[in-house]
Amino acid sequence: MIETPMIIKARLSPREILDKYTYVIRMTWIQTLEYKANIVVGMFAILSGVIIEYLLWKRIFITRGISEIGGFTFQALIIYIFFCLVVGQLKSSWVTSIEMIDGIREGELNKYLIRPISYFVYHLMLFIGHNSLYYLVYFFLITGMAVFFPEWVFPGWTHGVMFLITLAISVYLSYAMYFLMVCFAFWFGEVRALVIAYNLANLVLTGQMVPMQLFPEGLRNFLHFTPLPYLVDVPVSIATGRMPVEMWVSAIVMGMFWSVIITLAGMILYSRGIKRYEGFGG
Amino acid sequence: MRVSVGRYLKLLAAFFSNSLTRDMEFKANFFGLLFVDFIYYGSYLLFFTIIFSYVDSLLEFTKPDVMVFLVITFLMDTVYMFAFAGNLGKLNRMIVHGDLDFVLLKPVNSQFFISFRYFNSYAVVSVVILSVLLWTTCVNTGREIQFLNVLIFLISFGLGLGIFFSVDFIIASLAFWFKNFNVGGWLSHEILKFSYRPDTIYAGLLRKTLFSIVPMALVSSVPARMLLYPPNFDYFLIQLVVSVLFLTLARNVWVKGLRLYDSASS
Predict the structure, then answer these.
(1) Residues B85, B78: Cα–Cα separation, whole Å
(2) Do A56 and B201 touch (CB under 8 A)?
(3) Which residues of B touch A99 (CB under 8 A)?
(4) E strands along chain B, which residues?
(5) Which pLDDT belongs to residue A10?
């Protein structure tokens, strides 16, 4: 049973493999378009998030009678939080990871084992496909911001390019981390709690509610040894011109390094877990 | 009437007993959900710790006051998780798949059944821990909290819970109109986000809105005020009126929604 898909896979050219996975994105994209309410709620989430943080920080700035906190002016802080909310939404996944956990627990994984398709890549494409509507809408939102308020974001065109590169790394890294957690389902069956806990902790620890630069020094130093800064803080710091140009390369290299490490860890867990997998669900 | 109340109380006890049995079958999940709760509390505590490293107070809410407010928010959320969250999240799916038929056929008030059928029993542990934490944080404020404060706080907490439930219920019931409203839970969460901050940060029109049409300031902030400060009966009266209005609205939305329901299963 396992041999057949491997033979078929070997016959496919790189172009065909690319077409295969692009088709997955296209199919998911069509499904996503059916649920336009998602984007309305997504926009509301960002708008309400910005309003709440705006009011909270405005109160702090007024109470202390200051014009700057931790190197952020009030305006810079709100722009930063806005970008964090956008990037945070683009890199998050509730749907794909929960589907993957259910798939392992209920035996749905079987269909990937007998087909010439990679479980990892297939779900990466689903992950991108599910979020594709957000990519499109937020692209226009961010472009509009850059056009109408050029002094607020993207000080130069290179910032825009580097933002897109680091955003791509963030999306991939985020997916790889979800994949790693999902693989624990081979041992524990139900790991939704782990994914939910990760998503909740992420809201604060990646800087989506308070910029990482404002964290206590000990926590900030600790987080620099984790992949978390590459999820939200790095792309947003580049977009808002807060990260010096000379740090860009090291940030990208470290982001890619973490992507490789997490992917490898996920692959190892998957290859061990699949040996335990019994394929009948329950 | 008395017989009816007794019957519904017996049903509640049976629902809880059944839920506890189900939850105990998946012990890892039981502890996993407790773990999620603590991550959630930890995240918000970290957030406000960072905020209060830059400021001493948010108007009349000092740091110890905000800690009390936070624990009340967690307690509200946990009680809600315990009693309602396991039920309303299923409503959209029941409407889409036509499974609501089985609820409507039962000789019991359908809104009651939909709202209380499943309890998240793990939340009992969190409620106990948070109650102790609330006591500790109240002591830390150094304020004199009278028996009257506690009494009015308990009533205010119940009213806040009623508002929380009504808003979530109304949003979940929109599935009757939209046929598939799977973003209802997300939308509720985004609206309820306004209740996770002390009401002192809101001003002007938004403040008026959050005390009336979208009454999120009445969910946790007002109970916190009732506990910490001398009882303000204006706030209490507003909360009472708004919660009665929203519970009535939730009932009307349910009744109207049921008229639109045409069962999807076939």
Answers:
(1) 9
(2) yes
(3) none
(4) 57-58, 61-62
(5) 57
H or E element that contains B87: helix B86-88
Question: Do A60 and B186 count as a contact with CB atoms less than 8 A apart?
Answer: no
CB contact under 8 A, B58 and A38: no
Return the number of CB contacts < 8 Å for A and B. Answer: 101
Going by pLDDT thresholds of 50, 70 and 90, the confidence category of residue A281 is low
Identity of residue A228: L
pLDDT in tens, A253-272: 999 999 999 999 999 999 99
User: Which chain A residue is nearest to residue B48, measuring alpha carbons?
Assistant: A210
End-to-end CA gap in chain A: 23
What residues of A are in contact with residue B183 (Cβ under 8 Å)?
Answer: 35, 37-38, 40-41
Contact B54 A38 (CB under 8 A): no
The SS3 of residue A82 is helix
Structure-model confidence comparison of residues B245 and A32, the more confident one: B245
Q: Tell me, what amino acid is at B232?
A: N
* B-chain residues near A214 (CB < 8 A): 50, 54
| More confident site: A112 or A76 | A76
Give me the residue from B29, B178, B186 closest to A190, CB to CB: B29
pLDDT digits (tens, 9 = 90+) for B27-48: 777 788 888 888 888 888 888 8
Chain A partners of B39 at a C-beta cutoff of 8 Å? Answer: 197, 200-201
- pLDDT tens digits, residue range A202-241? 888 988 888 998 898 899 999 999 999 999 999 999 999 9
Q: How far is CA B147 from CA A5, A120, B68, B227, B230, in A?
A: 72, 59, 17, 10, 11
CB contact under 8 A, A193 and B29: yes
Domain boundaries, given as residue ranges, for chain A: 3-276
Token output for A207: 């800087």
Task: State how far residue A85 is from chain B, nearest Cα, in angstroms.
Answer: 13
The C-alpha atoms of residue A41 and residue B183 are separated, in whole angstroms, by: 7
Looking up tokens 């580049």 gives A238
Question: Cα–Cα distance between A173 and B209 in angstroms, integer?
Answer: 40
